Amino acid sequence: MKIFLTVMVVIAAGFGSAKLIRFARSVDFTEGYAPAQPVKFSHKVHAGENQIACVYCHYSAEQGRHAGIPPVELCMNCHTHVKKDSPEVQKVADALANNESIKWQKVHHLPDFAYFNHSQHVNVGKVSCQQCHGDVQSMDVMKQTGNLSMGWCISCHRDSQIAPPDDHKSRAGGDCAKCHY
């Protein structure tokens, strides 16, 4: 009887551990996540219809780790002349007048233990924004289109011949310390 109970506890612990591991691996893989934003902003209008380049607003993508959120001053470069009476533009104008920033909700999340540098991908890798962020120019509401998991990133590196499957020392694919520190 004691052996039977021990076996049952081990089996239950195994199933519980497997379930916990599956849950832990899914944390922050929020494909489809599209939070409500404090200002209704359409990438479809700005990047699509008006063909404003992503790096005009997210200029930090070419210079550093984060793409960054554009300051309200940048929005007002155009919106002092275009749609200046719109209630959404007025929110931006009010923020500028009060020396405040817009409290945008982050859409794309990576775990804290994963390092990602936008400038390496944009400048060196020549990766388009759409490759990771989806068809941004058709989105009224920005959403996360990929799951941004480690496997997703590694697949991209392998598909683009940056990291051959059997090369663990390539410049961007097999060295764990490139992304994890």
Termini distance?
A: 48 Å
The low-confidence parts are: none
Give the helices and strands as they follow along the chain. Answer: HHHHHHHH
Structural shape? elongated
Q: What is the mean predicted local confidence, pLDDT?
A: 86
Number of strands: 0
Query: Helical content, roughly?
Result: 40-55%
Number of helices: 8
- In terms of DSSP E residues, the strand content is under 5%
Structural class comes to mainly alpha
Calculate Rg over CA atoms: 22 Å
Strand count, sense and barrel status of the largest sheet are: none
How would you describe the overall organization of this protein?
The chain is mainly α and 181 residues long. It is built from 8 helices and no strands. The longest helix is centred in the first third of the chain and has 25 residues, at 2-26. The protein is elongated and about 80 Å long. It starts with a helix and ends in a 22-residue tail after the last helix. The model has no long low-confidence stretch (mean pLDDT 86).
